[in-house]
Amino acid sequence: MKKYLIASAIALAFGGAHAADTAAPAPRAENAYLSQVDAAARAARVSNVDYTLEFALTGKESFSGKTTLSFDLSDAAQALTIDLDKANISSLTVNGKTVAPQYNQWFITLAAADLVAGRNTVTIEYTRLHSTNGEGLHRMVDPVDGRVYTYSHFEPAAAHQMFPVFDQPDLKGTYQITVTTPADWVVSSTKRETSVQDIDGGKRWSFPRTKKLSPYNFSMHAGPYKVWEDNSGKYPMRLFARQSVASQVSPADWFKYTKAGLAFFDQYFGIPYQFEKYDQLLVPDFLYGAMENAAAITFAEGRFLHKEEMTSAQKQSLAGVIMHEMAHQWFGDLVTMKWWNGLWLNESFASFMGTLATSEATEFTNAWQSFYSSGKQEAYVQDARVTTHAVETPVPSTANAFDNIDAITYSKGASTLKQLRHLLGEEVFRQGVHNYLIKYQYRNATLDDFIGSLAAAANRDLSGWTQEWLYQPGVNTITADYSCAGGKVSSFTLRQSAPNPELPTLREQRVQVGLFKLGADGLALSKNVAITYKGAATAVPELNGAACPDLVYPNYQDWGFAKVRLDKKSFATAQHSLSKVNDPLLRSMLWQSLWDGVRDAQLPLNEYLKTVLANAPAEKDYTLLGDILEKVKASVGYLNLMGDSAYKKQVTLQLEQMAFKATKSASDKNFQRRWFSTYLQVASSPAALKQLAAILDGKLVVPGLNVSQDVRWDIIKRLNRYAYPGADALLAVEQQKDKSDSGQQAAIAAAVIRPEPKVKAEWLATISDLKTTLPFSKVRTAMGSMYPEEQRSLGEVSAAQRLATLGDVDKAAGPVYMRPYGASMIPATCTPASLQRLDETIAKLPNLSTGTHRWLLVTRQEDQRCIAIKQAMTAH
C-alpha cells in the first residue's frame, strides 16, 4: 500500500524523531528520562533484540535478576546505553568480556571499544528493591494474611525499573524468562509456562520465547494468587486475584465478557488473537484502571472488586474496560506506536473499539449513551480549558509521556474516530483498520501509517481532516439558526463557531439534525436529516417545509464531537419538557445542555436544581439517572465551595429527602443502590447524618438495601466528614472488624477527612514526606480526602504553605506523585482572593513541570468558573 502523505508541516510536528536519525549523536543527558532524539538515535543503530531474563523472587523487599541481551548493532563506533533504574550491578559482561559497569543509576553506558558491528551479547546480573509506587516490579504485603504479591507495570517507560532493557516502544524484542519463586506462588507472563520444577524451598518457572513485543507490553506477575480457569472459548482464559479477596470476584462475569470480546474482535479485525492464551489479574495498589500487557492484562482491585453483587453499572464498567484492554492486544501490542506521541491513538482507538464491542457483544447495548454521559463530557470539559491541547502533540522525552494523557487523549480521540467512521462509512473504516493491522503486525507504526490505511480504503484525501481534528486543539459549538412561516420551516442554517478566538479552527463533520414536536405522546421526532457541514454556516434546504419544531437538536444521536448550543425556543422546551422526551439518549443530551448552561454561568444553578427536583425522581433510564445524580453531586460541591447560606441548607435538605425517598421506594436494586449512593453524597444535615448512623448500627432498616462492608465504610466516612458525635469511635471499631487492604484505605479516607486542625496537620506532614514508608496508594487516598469543599477554613490554614512549596515538591517528587497532588492539594476557595493567590503563584513558578503547571492553570480556571456560577445564582 502506498504510504499516505500528510502535509509536510504535520509530518514535521509529529515526526521529529526521523530528523534525528541522521544527526550526529550527542551524549545522552544524565537523568532518569529518555529523550525522543536519543531514542531515535539508538533505534537507528539497534535491531533484532532478544532478551533472556532470569528472576529470583523470595517475597522479600528486593529481588535479583540476570539479563542476557542480544542485538544487532549497525554502528559500533560510539557508546551505547541500556536503561536500568536504581539497581546494584554485580556483574557486567559484554561480548564475553567482563567489564566494570559505567552506571549512573538510570542507564548503563557500554563503551564503543567493547561493542562490535553485527551481533552483540550483554549479560548483566543485578539486584534491585521492589517498587512500592505501582511501577516496575511492584510488591505488596497483604495485611490480612501476610502473603506477598508482585506484579509488573511498565507504561509509559518503567520496564527498566525491573530489568536492563532498551526501554522504548520502537525497539521490539522477544523475551524468554525463568523465574524462581516460593513454593505456593504462581507466575503469569506473556506465554504459558513450559515447565514448573520443584527446587529447594520453592519452584522454578520456565517460559518459552515470546513473539516480538515493545518492552512496555511485556509483563511478569508472581505471587500466591488464586486462579480460575475457563476453556470454553477459542482461547484458554484465566483470572487471578489475591487469596484474601477471592470471595469478591465474580469469575463468571469476567469470563463471559472476555469470551464475547475475543469472538467479536477476531471477527471485526479479521485477524485471530495472536497471543494464544488470555490471563487477567486483579492487582492491588494499581496506578490506573487497567493495563494491556500482552496476554497478561492487569486490573485495579479498587475499581473492580466489590463486597456485594455488582450493580448493572459496575458490570458495564467491567465489560467496557475488558473490551478496551482487549482492543489493545491488536492495536497497541500487535501493532505499536513508534514513540510516545502515538499514545493518544493507542488509547483513543481502544476507547472507541471498547465501546463498540460493549454495545455489540454484551447486554449493554446502550454503551454509546454511557460514553456520551461520561467520557465524552469529560473531553468537552478538557477541550474548553486553558490547558487544552491538540490530540496529537510532541513528546520530547519519557518525562512528558503522560503530560497529555487525559480525556482529550481517550475520549475526544475516540469521538474523532467515531466521527471518521460516520464520514467514511462503517465497512470502509473497518477495512482500513484491517489493512493497517495486517501490514504493520509485529512492527511499529505512526499516525501517518494509520491515516494512510483509512485513506486508501476510502479512496479519499484525509490530510485536511487530519489537520483540523488531530493537530488543532479546541472544541466547536454548533447551533441551529432557522425561521418559520405559516407553521413551516422557511430557512435553516447550521452555524459552527470556535468560542475561543485563539483556537479559530472550524471543522468538517457529519451529523444528524433532528426536529421535534410536542404532542400527546411527548416530544416526538418529526424530521431528521444527515448532513456533512463545514465552515461557519451550512444551509440545510432539506428541512425547508418541515413542521416548525418545538425543539431542534443539531447533533441527534451523537454522531459529532461538538458542543450544542440550543436556540432559545429549544432551550425553553428542554427545561420544561424533559419528562416528555421519550428517547433516553436525547434526554441525556438535553440534560447536558442545561448543565452546560450552569457551567457557562448562563443558567442559574438554583434553576437547574429545580429541574432536578422536578424530574429526577421519575427518571426510568438507569444510565441517565446516574448521569443526573453525578451532576447533583457536582452541584452540591459548588454550593459547599460558595459557603453557608439559607438556600444551601434548604436545597440540600430537599436533595436529601428526594434521594432517601427514592431509595425507599425503588423496586429495582440497581436503582436503589444508585439513589442511596447519592443520599450518602449529599447527606449533611443533622437529621440525615443521624439517619445514616441508624442504618449503620441496624436500628433503621431500609427494605432491600444491603448494608455491605463497602457501604458501611461510605457511611463512616460521611459521618467523620461532618464530625458526627461518636464518628471517630465508629471508625476505630470498623478498623478492627475489617483489616483488609481496602478497609485500610477506607479507614485512612475516613480519618483524614475529619474536620480537625490536628488531623489535617498530621496528614499533611505524612503526604509531604517523600520518604514515608506508607505505600503510595495510601498516600494518594489521603490526598483525595484532605480538603473537601465545605472545609475551606481548614484548608486555608496550610494553603499559603502548599502554594509556596509547590515548586520544590514538584521538583523532588516526580510525575507519579504529582498527578494526584495537583488534583487534590492546590487550594481554591471560589473567591476573588483565591483567584488572585493562584495568579500570583502561576507568575512566581514559571519552571514547574508541564503536568503540575497544568493543574495550577486548571485549578485557577475552575475557581473562576465557580465564582461566575455563584454570581449568576446571586443575580437571579
From TrEMBL:
Pfam families membership: ERAP1_C, Peptidase_M1, Peptidase_M1_N
Reaction(s) this enzyme catalyzes, per UniProt: Release of an N-terminal amino acid, Xaa-|-Yaa- from a peptide, amide or arylamide. Xaa is preferably Ala, but may be most amino acids including Pro (slow action). When a terminal hydrophobic residue is followed by a prolyl residue, the two may be released as an intact Xaa-Pro dipeptide
PANTHER family per record: PROTEASE M1 ZINC METALLOPROTEASE, PUROMYCIN-SENSITIVE AMINOPEPTIDASE-RELATED
InterPro entries per UniProt: Aminopeptidase_N-like_N, Aminopeptidase_N-like_N_sf, ERAP1-like_C_dom, Pept_M1_aminopeptidase, Peptidase_M1, Peptidase_M1_aminopeptidases, Peptidase_M1_dom, Peptidase_M4/M1_CTD_sf
Positions of the ERAP1-like C-terminal domain: 551-845
EC number of the protein: 3.4.11.2
Classification lineage: Bacteria, Pseudomonadati, Pseudomonadota, Betaproteobacteria, Burkholderiales
Cofactor: Zn(2+)
Protein's recorded name: Aminopeptidase N
Residue span(s) of domain Aminopeptidase N-like N-terminal: 51-216
Alphabetical UniProt keywords: Aminopeptidase, Hydrolase, Metal-binding, Metalloprotease, Protease, Signal, Zinc
Organism: Duganella guangzhouensis
Family classification: Belongs to the peptidase M1 family.
Gene Ontology CC terms: cytoplasm; extracellular space; membrane
Domain Peptidase M1 membrane alanine aminopeptidase stretches: 258-469
Entry's Gene Ontology BP terms: peptide catabolic process; proteolysis
Signal peptide location: 1-19
Single annotated GO MF: peptide binding
Enzyme class: hydrolase
